[in-house]
Write a structure and sequence with these properties.
mainly beta; 11 strands; about 50% strand; globular
Length: about 130
């Protein structure tokens, strides 16, 4: 069993920054691709960013490109999402998720992700 715990959410003004962390325990972290998803009230669940096991492949939602950066530290079993220049439309609950295998075609879809964290709230005020 893999256990994921997010941290780092909070309230920030537009233009500010937050860094989300996802600590993973239970199995070899480096075996998994990691994704960050978000869901705002009344909106669909969407994939924000993905990083493969080595960090060599990443994906970003168009609306966050140039503002968000996903990274991972396999020695610390932790994935990160650095969020800069935050906008009110970034307000959502952010979830990290782990997938044992992804392809470029499915990496932004929730289906390959077997393990999910409990979520952390990010609120951006205007």
């Amino acid at each position: 069993q893999v256990h994921l715990v997010e941290s780092g959410g909070g309230l920030v003004q537009a233009g500010g920054s937050l860094r989300l962390s996802c600590s993973v325990s239970g199995r070899a972290f480096s075996n998994y691709a990691m994704g960050w998803f978000r869901q705002a009230p009344g909106k669909e669940h969407e994939c924000v960013a993905v990083i493969n096991w080595s960090g060599g492949t990443t994906y970003y939602l168009d609306s966050v490109k140039g503002r968000f950066t996903i990274s991972r530290d396999n020695a610390e079993s932790t994935a990160y999402l650095q969020m800069n220049n935050l906008k009110p439309e970034d307000t959502a609950v952010y979830y990290c998720a782990a997938a044992p295998f992804i392809t470029r075609e499915n990496m932004a879809h929730p289906a390959p992700y077997e393990y999910w964290g409990q979520g952390t709230q990010v609120t951006v005020s205007s």
